[in-house]
Design brief:
By secondary structure, this protein is α/β, with parallel strands linked by helices. Helix content is 32%, strand content 23%. The strands form 4 sheets. A 5-stranded mixed sheet has the order 1-7-6-4-5, sandwiched between helices. Strands 8-13-12-11 form a 4-stranded mixed sheet, with helices on both faces. Strands 2-3 form a two-stranded antiparallel ribbon. Helix 3 crosses helix 4. The two termini are 24 Å apart. Bound molecules: oxa(dethia)-CoA. Oxa(dethia)-CoA binds next to helix 2, helix 6, helix 8 and strand 12.
Length: 333
Amino acid sequence: MFKGRSVEIAGIGAYVPEKILSNADLEKIVDTSDEWITTRTGIKERRIAAEGETTSSMMAKAADLAIKQAGISPSDIELIIGCTATPDMAFPSSACLVQKQLSIPNAGAFDLESGCSGFLYGLSIASQFIASNAMDTVLVLGGETLSRIQNWSDRSTCVLFGDGAGAAVLKPGKSGGGILNFHLDSDGTYGGALCLPAGGSAMPASKETVEKNLHTVHMDGREIFRQAVTKMTESALISLGELGMSPNDIDYYIPHQANIRIIDSVAKKLGIPKEKTIVNLQKYGNTSCASLPIALYEADKEGKIKPGDTLLMTVVGAGLSWGTMILKWGHEK
Ligand code: UT7
């Protein structure tokens, strides 16, 4: 249960690169078809970062919008949490790189890595600094340049992912609003089912690792699919149960945008109808840590989600890690 001062998302922003890679474009790169990708995943196209664009540069653009919507100045930010599996480099952190780009003075900054679950983990951690009165303003970033870690000859993975970024400014909320609770969980025994084997201390970069494509995404898609459906459903039910809520109390379900079949299965198990489920993966594919904030940003901009709406967000990612957050959107009127 969420304890302490209430916390809300006071500003949300997102950015996606201009370049579109369609399923038809992919047909020219690997042995695949628009029909296979559409029916198995729901994805029609994804965005690809331009040369020179990086995770931090996209995060900075998203953060700029979130800061403006929150009506704060960069100097108000006390902590920056960068959530990504594809940082510009191992260090310094993406959060520090964004701090420099936006000239944010005197803020603590660090990255957290939790696969595609990162942004929800980031929101949860950020909320605790505000709930405990330690801070008033925290910036959470979620961004990925997944196109740079794809094996473009592996059709089972390269069709799934895209680039983009999102950001949220967290501030104290009005009583009863904001984040109602969150549930975080993980199971490291599934670590091998979704990983980037080389480039870390276990397998440092070498000519051989590059030749064997070990710096690219390796995934057991069927296992991740099975786990995603089970864990996202279980996690949502735990969070709802803790608040004494049922899926009927939810105005919108915003799941991690990985695969329409995962989203539909979880929604069906929870009894949440299609018209209450936010889906945009047809346009962006799986953008990992950027998936949730891009979906939130678009749903807010389109006027779909409104202040006071109760949102259920569930995620799953490498680790295996998963989680849920239930919140009331925007400022309570
Ligand atoms: O954020 C978490 C990140 N990861 C995920 O969300 C991934 C979760 N998993 C999935 O989304 C699905 O498992 C995939 C979309 C990756 C694969 O779908 P699937 O229905 O589980 O297909 P499959 O792996 O069972 O493969 C079925 C067939 C295979 O051919 P055979 O062995 O039946 O002849 C694959 O080789 O589809 C083939 N296949 C493709 N065919 C055309 C795999 N990828 C492709 C492709 N185009 N891109």
